Amino acid sequence: MRVxxxxxxxxLTYIPYYWWVMVKRAPSRFNPDALAREAARFEAExxxxxxxxxxxxxxxxxxxxxxxxxxxxxxxxxxxxxxxAFDAVLQCQRCVEPFVKAIAVDFxxxxxxxxxxxxxxxxxxxxxxxxxxxQLHLVGLLEDDALLALPDIPKHEDDASCVPxxxxxxxxxxxxxxxxxxxxxxxxxxxxx
Length: 193
Hints:
The protein is an alpha/beta fold. It has helices at 6-12, 32-38, 52-57, 115-120, 138-149, and strands spanning 23-25, 29-30, 41-47, 64-74, 77-91, 98-112, 126-129, 136-137. The radius of gyration is 27 Å and the shape is elongated.
């Protein structure tokens, strides 16, 4: 029996536009227009080690990234709508200890052929540019959204989980109570006329 984390369960419970369609294994490279005609939901479960940029950001790249998505046509454009989930092993910036954060994110991408078409889209839409053959690579598609879902400053959710380590900022020479001569002490002996 397979055990899923909370983030992976959120991904698996995603209900696309067409909930009655067949679920298929996602191809590693695909033409979104062809998939939109199939009216299917796709699932992918890939090891995190297949995502080189994501693996660099994590302390441990063991584990899998799970995704479900569907491709539909909207106003003569292919739209990829789905979700992804994985458990990220990050380093807490408060206590410098590793911790696991469940990442789950929904995405909706509009497929365009050129960067000029992407720039012409309204700011509310998130474009993805197809390669020269009109194809998308699954790893690149999911990796971009996974990287954007990582926290800017990784830290434990609650302060109680952070175990403060020993903090040392170097040794101070002498003691703080030592009196240093006042450089203006010579001025007190001056006589003002």
